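Task card 7
Instruction: Convert sequence to structure tokens.
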Amino acid sequence: MYMKTNLLVVLVIVSMITVSAQFQTPQIRPSLEFRDVGDVQYKTIMIGGLDIFYREAGDPSKPTILLLHGFPSSSHMYRDLLRDLAPTYHVIAPDYPGFGLSSCPGEDQYEYTFDNLATTMEQFINALKLTELILYVQDYGGPVGFRIASRKPKLIRALIIQNANGYKEGLGDAIAPLKNYFTNPNEETEKGARGIFSTTKWQYTEGAGDISRISPDSYIIDQFFLDRPGNDKIQLALFRDYKNNLVLYPKWHSYFKKMQPPTLILWGRNDKIFITPGAEAYKRDLKNIEVHMFNGGHFMLEEYHQEAAKLIDSFLTKNLLN
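Output:
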């Protein structure tokens, strides 16, 4: 009887240990690290009578990265990268007038030129009391940001350039309708330029390494803002003004040569709008430069924001923080 009782106790203990093992809290491997990246804040500030919407994350005491968006997007294109960078940097991404959630005044109330967008963004920088920053530019962010950098070179600690063109050899065949329009604006060339308004999804998916990683939110949201009544006239005004960006290329090259800001190039090599020779061309004028090509398109952050964040942190740590 005693032996039977002992055997029963042993069986119960073994059973309890087995059940406990099945339901115990999983152990996290020491190699994994989980950090609270903090929330992105959504703010609006009055600049020149306009509401300028912006996203902000990270500690303001840390190095500031200002991210300027492209066409037809807004600060929404940086939604993932902001969270990736927030643990280490102070990150700010505004919407230009006429884009995203910023004010969208008509042409009779605001001059839609790249000079004026740059002026508004410079006023935004001053209002936020930013005295030095790392400038991240994509697409339209290039001509807006390079204007600011060449006017205020001491403001810029480093450049991060993602599919933003500054050289004629970087202009791909896909911009032919735009070029035809700003070279000779007329009824016929305007039709071709208006065709660009229906290429939003194509701009995101063309050249993508894995289309399944492109969030539909990206191009659906961009198209929503692009389709607002009167926004076509705003975009056509900027299309016509685009020729003045090409005129300023030599001035920007002089800024690169003279100031030599540390520069990180992140480029979707399958981009049909701004092609890879444009990325390589920066090497002519900049000495401290890294160029990284991704198997992606014009909006390659949709697929590679985490990889981009790691390269950004590595580059800035090496060049600014040590």
